[in-house]
Amino acid sequence: MRLVLLGPPGVGKGTQAVRLSKRLGVPHISTGDMFREALAKKTALGLSAKEYIDSGKLVPDDITIGLVRDRLENPDCAGGFILDGFPRDVAQAEALEKILEILGVSLDAAIYIGAGSRIVVKRIAGRRVCEGCGATYHISFNPPPEDGKCPKCGGRIYQRVDDRQEAVRERLKVYKALTEPVVDYYKGLGILKVVNGEEDANEVLEAIISMI
Ligand code: AP5
Ligand code: MG
Ligand code: ZN
Q: Are 206 and 197 in contact (CB under 8 A)?
């Protein structure tokens, strides 16, 4: 199964990608997570992405497309993958088509997870993330332990810099201007599926599974 997950910041792409990856047995590829991991290790990639991410802007396409190309060429992607946070503009979507053509495969579906802006802002404001394993929590919907340590790995739980109000506003603007056209792009290819992301996370998962 080769899937792309689309949708506004904070709608639950990462949450669903983790579950789908377990259910379908294919890797979860999140460009946002890859950048944050690179930054935690202070690599050149991470440091060059930092200012874009912290301010809510897109990391330049040449950096991001090369990163995804390398990742998709990895043998663990031969049986499928779930892309989360890529493609994020039409140039990335076109580049992905070319990469897949060279690999001799194609996408099975692009799943658009939708929710109103009040809901996504609330989800982003309450999100907390583990520095060690990337596990995601929410102060109301999935609260992390009070000691601030991740139950899965013991890592420190923190709030993403780009989850603060000003960066969130910019991310929503960038999403409208650059990423929404990607939804139409996949509609044009005839592989777009739409799910209601306002439901409980388990219901969203089942809705996706029943569609694919
Ligand atoms: P990225 O990390 O991809 O961020 P994003 O797209 O803004 O999406 P989020 O991770 O914020 O939200 P999500 O949909 O994954 O929601 P989640 O599951 O966590 O990108 C960050 C930055 O990296 C970008 O701004 C850019 O700078 C750079 N970047 C990344 N990819 C790039 C690319 N391709 N090109 C250029 N730059 C790129 O859920 C949110 C919260 O809600 C959590 O707390 C969760 O527990 C909770 N939640 C989830 N589902 C539910 C539910 N159904 N009910 C209740 N709560 C829920
Ligand atoms: Mg995410
Ligand atoms: Zn952890």
A: no
Task: State the DSSP H helix or E strand holding residue 116, giving kind and residue range, or none if neither.
Answer: none
Catalytic residue from among 13, 19, 71, 123: 13
Looking at ligand 1, which atom is closest to the CA of residue 31?
A: 31
**pTM of the predicted structure, to 2 decimals:** 0.96
- Which residues line the pocket of ligand 1, CB cutoff 6 A? 7, 9-15, 31-32, 35, 52-53, 56-59, 64, 85-86, 88, 92, 123-124, 126-127, 136, 138, 141-142, 162, 171, 200-201, 204
The pLDDT tens digits of the residues spanning 41-66 come to 999 999 999 999 999 999 999 999 99
According to DSSP, the β-strands at 136-138 and 127-130 are antiparallel
Residue 210 burial (C-beta neighbours within 10 Å; 0-12, 13-18, 19+): exposed
Is residue 160 annotated as part of the catalytic site, yes or no? yes
Which is catalytic among the residues 122, 160, 164, 193?
160
Closest CA to 4 of 133, 124, 105: 105
- Counting as low any pLDDT under 70, the low residues of the chain are none
pLDDT, tens digit (0-9, with 9 covering 90-100), for 90-99: 999 999 999 9
Q: For residues 63 and 10, is the Cβ–Cβ distance under 8 A?
A: no
Residue 113 burial (C-beta neighbours within 10 Å; 0-12, 13-18, 19+): buried
